[in-house]
Amino acid sequence: MNTGKISVRYSSALYSIAKERGEEDSVYEQMHALSEAFFHTPGMSAALSNPMYSDADKLQLLRTAIGAGLTETVDQFFLFVVKKERLEFMPFMSMMYQEIYRKDKNIILSKVITARELKPETLKELREKVSKTTGKQVVMYDETNEDLIGGFVLELNNLRYDASVKASLEKIESKLIGK
Amino acid sequence: MSDIKPSEVYDILKQQLAGMESTARMEEVGKVLQVKDGVAIIFGLDNVQANELIEFENGMMGVVMNLEEDNVGAVLFGPSENIKEGFSVKRTGRIASVMAGDGLLGRVVDTLGNPIDGKGPIQGQLYEMP
Fold it and tell me: Which domain holds residue A150?
C-alpha cells in the first residue's frame, strides 16, 4: 500500500496550487476542518472506501464536513481526487497538507491541557515562551480536562509533555503494582 | 490486632518507590486515522521503529508493522472496537518481545506474555526473545 507516496504527492500539489492562488491559509483551515471531521465522526473515513456509496455521495460527505467555508480550489481538488479514484486516501491528504503548510510557514501546532481554565495572559505568556524556545511561530489551543486533577499537558506537534498530577499518580500506581 | 505505625508504612512505600522517575518526559505521540480488521493506521510517530510496541490512550497495546512516509500501520493486541479514530497513541521505545523460560510450561499467557490463568507470575529465569 503506497498510502504515504500518494498522500504526499496529492497534498504537495494542492499546496503548490493554493500558494499560487494565495489561498494556502484558507485551504489549511478547510483541511483542518476536514481532518477534525475524520477524527470525530466514526466511520467517515471507512465510508470513503465503501463501494456501496456512490462518488456523488462521498463528494457530498466531504463538502458537508467542510461546510460553508468550502472554496472552489478545494472543491476542484475533491473532484480531481474522485476522478483519480483516490478518495480513500483523503484523510491522509488532509493531514499531510497541514504538515506541509506548517513546515513551510515555520509554524508549530501546540495544545495545552489543564484541569482548570487558563487566564488569557497566562496562555499568552506560555505561547511566547514556547515560541522563544522553539524559534517558531506558535499556534496554541487550550483545553480543560478536570481528570488531570492538576498540572498540565503540553503538546507540540507530535510531542507530548505530560506534567499532570494524574500522570504522576499513574506512575506511582504502576511502580507499586510492579507493572 | 497490632497497631500499624505510620513510619513502617512510610518505609515500605519509600522502598517500593525507590528509583522511580518522578520528572515528566517528552513523549512522541500520534493519532489514529483508521481502524479496521485489527489494524490501526496512525498519523505521526515519525521516529517509531518496526516491531516497536505502542500504547493507545485507553491502555491497549499494539505493534508497529508497516512504516510509510506519513503514517504507520499497527496490529492491535485487543478488539478493534475499543480503538476509535482520533485516539492518541504513544511510543513505548520497546521492541515487541516475549519472555521465555521453563516457567512458561503449562501456563496460559496473553499476546504480551502476561499470565492470564490466575496462577500468579511466571516463575524461574526468563530470557527476552528475540
Answer: 106-177
Question: Chain B residue with minimal CA distance to A3?
Answer: B68
Cell numbers at B23, concatenated: 520528572
Do A23 and A91 sit in the same domain of this protein?
yes
Nearest to B24 among A7, A38, A162 (CB): A162
Residue that finishes a domain, picked among A83, A103, A123: A103
Q: Is the dihedral of CA A173, A177, B4, B9 positive or negative?
A: negative
Query: Using a CB cutoff of 8 Å and minimum separation of 24, what contacts does B4-10 make?
Result: none
**Same domain flag for A53 and A131:** no
Q: Which three cell numbers stand for residue A10?
A: 496529492
Cell, residue A178:
510492579
Pairing of strands A159-164, B26-36: antiparallel
Contact A45 B33 (CB under 8 A): yes
Query: Half-sphere exposure of B67 toward its Cβ, with a 13 Å CA cutoff?
Result: 8
Q: How many residues does chain A have?
A: 179
| pTM (predicted TM-score) | 0.77
- Residues A97, A9 share a domain: yes
B24/A158 Cβ within 8 A: no
Task: Give bridge partners of residue A105 from the DSSP assignment.
Answer: none
Q: Give me the interface pTM, i.e. the ipTM.
A: 0.76
pLDDT in tens, B33-84: 888 889 999 988 989 999 999 999 888 999 999 998 888 999 999 898 889 8
Number of domains in chain A: 2
Name the residue among B50, B73, B42 with its Cα closest to residue A1: B73
The domain boundary residue, chosen from A40, A73, A103 = A103
Note whether A118 and A50 are same-domain residues. no
